[in-house]
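Checklist before submission:
- one chain only
- standard amino acids only
- sequence pasted in full

Submission:
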Amino acid sequence: IPLATIDAEPGDEVHTIGNSGVGDSALWRYSTGTVRQRGYRRCNVSGAWIECQILETQIPINSGDSGGPVLNSDGELVAINMASHGQQ
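Returned file contents:
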């Protein structure tokens, strides 16, 4: 998947592909929605703290979506799906 050369902005349409895993009749799950907001925060990645750009979307995150691509309408990668709950 090619990386996007332009950042996704609020209001942009985005698309996700996830794998729901065992027990679901769908091998892949496609969802679409728009970007709500874009921001930055420090994220712990394998023990290292880095500045991360965060996209909040109006797409529901399904079980198995984490780690899957978030694509713009040109099929370019703008983010990776991740859901979190509580303090990170």
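Reviewer check: The chain has no helices and five strands.
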